[in-house]
Amino acid sequence: MWIWVLFIALVIVFLALDLGVFHRNEHVIRSKEAGMWTALWVSIALGFSGVIYWLFSSGLVENPTGLTPNTAVLKYVTGYLIELSLSIDNVFVIAVIFAAFNIPPLYQHRVLFWGILGAIVFRGLMIVFGVALINKFDWIIYVFGAFLLYTAFKMLKSNDSEFDPQKSFMFRQLKKLYPITTTLNGHDFFVKRMGVTAATPLFVALVIIEVTDVLFALDSIPAILAITADPFIVFSSNILAILGLRSMYFLISRMLQKFRFINYSLVVILAFVGLKMLFAHQIELPEWVSLTVISVSLVAGIIASLAIPEKKKGTESV
Description:
The chain crosses the membrane at residues 6-22, 34-56, 76-99, 111-133, 139-156, 202-226, 232-252, 264-283, 289-308. With 318 residues, the protein is an all-alpha fold. The protein contains 11 helices and 2 strands, in the order H-H-H-H-H-H-E-E-H-H-H-H-H. Helix 1 (2-22) runs parallel beside helix 8, helix 2 packs antiparallel against helix 3 and helix 3 packs across helix 9 (245-252).
């Protein structure tokens, strides 16, 4: 139990250093700074695989699924890559939300900080619930598998341009609870004018990002549970991927158009883990197969996006 306490304490320290020290003064996050932070978070996450090996080899953490240290490391890295890759789709939606509510780059880091803090709490609860379901009901793995296949199909057919945060159900409900201003008041989430407390666009964006992350977790949590049902591996890989989401957003949000084929990579990954769940009791794949499929899918999507020139609209062949 103390391992969990130490890990959560470490996450709190990371968050405190992030907002209280390194980003105390609000500023626009440039690509170079975002790249350095992304490299740091990825290095921390991958370096944590050494901690996973030590914990499972020393028996300091509960091992309900009977994993060997090497297998535990492979499952952790695979789970982390799944969460990191699915976070890319989250970046697309966050960019749309910020654009819809005209959130300037100066305050975007503050919104994402509190959004990720809430996401850690919600995902922790969902992980505990999901692991408990799988351990109690074997058949639930088929439900998760079918849901992931449906999500992959829906992602393949979806059009991102259809999403309008200002027409969402959450925005309409929020307007019923609080008056909403159309102008910002610095980095404040609320403003009091003439005795009335109103929510600023920053708070509206925060709430919609939070709800959106919960919806994304409905995909990502079952996806990582297809790899392992060990609660500590699921939780640690998920949370470390979330911690790197902010810097990854500032790194790739300006290059979203270049990665237009990444969506297909995510479809392949979701479909693969969905099928893996559906046939979990019939076919047992080695851990390196899952790791290879996920890595190759991501690399292929990136290479295709950079190598295949985009057709310009309105051009006619001569």
